[in-house]
């Protein structure tokens, strides 16, 4: 079945450029995405970024899989001759532990993907989400992820504060290779505001969010041609869900990270990533608007330079 992007309902889109040609679009595709029983992840393929074929079944949980809900934010990277998916999973069984990011693997870009790591590679003391892969200058892989403010009540100092972390991984992406390192908190960005919903829109009860939390999600890392390391990430701003940019002052994944004063995209859309089209133009893909079930995939052009990430006008 052929579709245009404005016809595909999807959150957290991620576009993989296939080495042999063409593109694969992944994202959160479950109907019961907040807390109902999960189905898996679907994907779509395209040769021109205009017409997309699908959906194709990229991942369906095998028998005995530990998670059964909140299948979110799949992203796929070609690495060591195979394709690795990093995705968020949760279980309705408290004994299975909190939500976390697990690594899956496939021999083909569209899958089928199967579990690779033994459960989540994020810390198990608090719910985590939205993992992205970063390879440092020595070839060492890192998992960059968000740790939510859920279950952490705000006090006199203000709302609960979401956090962004990086954790080194083993070369085969199967295991954590060290402790997680705090990169920054949501409150470090001047544009980040406490979570809010428009009048008449109730937040999903299944999220069990602390009252008025600041939060981080949707990290994606990219280097400029001059070697500057930038991170695209999402939170809430004055106009709803938004994307901001942070830059590593030292050029390392561990930072220190300097936040851009204003969001890159402020108008009720986010969880984006950047890739290059066949003409070499940088493209930002994200979901907009943020309300379920109206989310659609949006694609716009951007410039990436030592100064940061800018929307093309």
Automatic annotation (TrEMBL):
MF (Gene Ontology): hydrolase activity
Keyword Hydrolase: yes
CDD domains cross-referenced by the UniProt entry: GH43_Bt1873-like
Keywords: Glycosidase, Hydrolase
InterPro entries noted in UniProt: Glyco_hydro_43, Glyco_hydro_beta-prop_sf, Glycosyl_Hydrlase_43
Pfam families named among the record's database cross-references: Glyco_hydro_43
Family note: Belongs to the glycosyl hydrolase 43 family.
Protein known as: Glycoside hydrolase family 43 protein
Species: Nocardioides panacihumi
Taxonomic lineage from the root: Bacteria, Bacillati, Actinomycetota, Actinomycetes, Propionibacteriales
